[in-house]
Amino acid sequence: MDLKTEMKYRSDLCTEGLKQLKKQRKSAEKEKDSTEMQRLAKLISHQEKRKTFFSASKYEPVRFENGLVINAKLVDQYLKKLPKMAMVTIFLQEGLLKIEWEVPRSSSGVLALKDLADHYQGFELQSGEERFHEHDIL
Description:
Layout: H1 3-30, H2 34-52, E1 61-63, E2 69-71, H3 72-80, E3 87-93, E4 96-102, E5 108-113, E6 126-127, H4 128-133
Parallel strand pairs: 1-6
Antiparallel strand pairs: 1-2, 3-4, 4-5
């Protein structure tokens, strides 16, 4: 299965799970079971957050040789906004991928990306090294 198809499939599974949780929450509301309503509200919130990881319009996960998975779309957006003269350095630190940039005698910044591997287990992902080779930063 290609990446977009897999992401759509996982998104649909999350949607079905959300429907079931919301039905259970309505039942708990009818029974006025506040403990169950709170538990289900937390599960619904978690499932809604999880579903966003499978939005192909917002995420393009790539996996590096060390197993780290990041959102390539976010990196692309960040790199496009950097000043033209910026010197970019990418490195791993404490399980994060960090992108530091600097314009000598001017400004600097850093983007730290968490590992998303837990969300994309079993996915066939593009190599991060190949993906970012086009930017000449890896």
